[in-house]
Design brief:
The chain is of the alpha/beta class. It has 2 domains: 60 residues, no CATH class; 78 residues, no CATH class. The protein is 42% helix and 26% strand. The chain has 6 helices and 5 strands. The strands form 2 sheets. A 3-stranded parallel sheet has the order 3-4-5, covered by helices on one side. A two-stranded antiparallel ribbon has the order 1-2. The longest helix is centred in the middle third of the chain and has 15 residues.
Length: 144
């Protein structure tokens, strides 16, 4: 069986990013039956609630590994908004940004592909990247 799990994310004062990133999870019939039984018994509100809880439990279980890896890789945790002013400042200083994010990285809609290419040396996102198709294409060789 296959179904989709979504996690809501709110960001900024008044600003709202899309509510979720969808992933597909394939489960065997017996596993899905166990999930449905727990939902029927009221332990979880629905299948998605069960999957989100299971994922969070596994993330917590491996929190030490995550913290060590983030420190080693100099990764920012959470939401990172990359705006035009930041990129213009980096370009004016003659430097390129190396950006590493675990969570959600957004490149503002007013960032041109040329500016993104000139100011971003590398971009590594463990999670989700929101950027225009043109900016994504301009950075294709720098995405890790």
């Amino acid at each position: 069986m296959e179904f989709i799990v979504a996690q809501g994310i709110a960001w900024g004062a008044g600003a709202r990013l899309p509510d979720s990133e969808k992933i597909t999870v394939n489960l065997g019939h017996v596993d899905l039956g166990h999930v449905d039984l727990l939902v029927a018994e009221g332990v979880y509100a629905n299948r998605s609630d069960f999957i989100r809880t299971a994922i969070r439990n596994q993330i917590e279980r491996h929190a030490d590994i995550t913290r060590q890896s983030m420190a080693r890789r100099s990764v920012e945790l959470g939401l990172r908004r990359i705006d035009r002013a930041t990129l213009e400042a980096a370009q004016a200083e003659g430097r390129r940004l190396d950006i590493r994010v675990l969570g959600l990285a957004t490149i503002a809609p007013d960032v041109s592909p040329d500016l993104a290419r000139a100011a971003i040396g590398s971009l590594s996102v463990l999670g989700s990247l929101q950027a225009s198709p043109a900016v994504r294409a301009a950075l294709a060789d720098r995405l890790r």
